[in-house]
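Issue 218. Parser rejects a valid record. Input:
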Amino acid sequence: MHPRRTCPAVATIALAIAYLPSARAQFIDACVNSPMMGMGAYDPSSAKGGAPFNATVKTTFEQKLPEGNAIRRVTHTHQARDSAGRTIIEAIGGCVPGEDGEMRPLIVANVNDPIARTRLNWIVNENGQPKVANLMHFPDSAPRAPIPQAARPAPDPAQQAQRLRVYQAQQARLRAENHTEDLGTRDFNGIAAQGTRTTRTIPAGEEGNDQPLVVFTETWRSKELGLTVMAIDDDPRRGRTTTEYEDLNLGEPDPSLFAPPPGYTIKEQPQPGIVGTAN
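Output the parser choked on:
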C-alpha cells in the first residue's frame, strides 16, 4: 500500500496500522493535516496503574451540514502501557513532503515513564530531517516549602456574598441543564465496562440559538483496566465524535516499543526549575 498523493482536510481518512515483529506501529496509508488528529478521548499516561495493553484507538468524526453536505473523518492512534506504567501514544501529526516530493505522514510518538519521571518524544517522517528524540525530566514530586506572600487586605463581605450568589446561580443552571444516567455494564470483546450518559439541554437563546440544543456525552469505562474503552460526544454545534479501542491486546507489550527507532539520537531538553543543560 502506498501513501496517498494528497493531504486532505475534509475527507474519509482511513489509517491502516500494521504491527511488525518489533511491535512498533507503522502508519502506512494516509496523511492528516490537522495536528494530532485522532488522539482520542483517553491519554493512557493520565491513569495510574492498570493492566498492560497494546491497542489501536479509532476516532470517527461525523458532522452533517445544513445544506445536506457531510464531513466524515476516521483516524487511528497506537497506544500501549506496560506493567511499570510506561505509556506510548503514536499518532499522525500531519503531512510533510518526502524526498521524492510525495506527501508522507508525519508520525508523532510520546512516551511517558512515571518511574524515571521522564517524557520522551520523537517525530518520524521522510523529509531528511535529523533523527532526534527529545528527553525531558520532570521535577521531583517532593513537597516544597510555601512561598511567603505579601499581606492582602481583608475581602469585602458584600463582594464575597455577591460572588457566592453568582456561583450558586450558575451551578443551579447547570444542574437544570444536565441529566446523568447509569447505562449499566456492557461487554466490549470480553471486557466489562460501566456506561454513563450525560444529556445537556441548552435552552433557546442561551447561546444565540433559536431552539433548545441537546448535547450527549457517553462514556464506557473499564475499572479493571483503567481505560475508557468507548466515548461518544454528540454535539449539534460540533458534530459527533466516537472514540473506541480496536485490537485491544492485553498483556505485556514489547519493551522496544518505548524506545525510539534505530538511528535516533536522544537529546536532553531542559525544563523550568530543573538543573541541567541540553546536550
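Fixed in the parser; the record now loads. The chain is about 10% helix and 45% strand.
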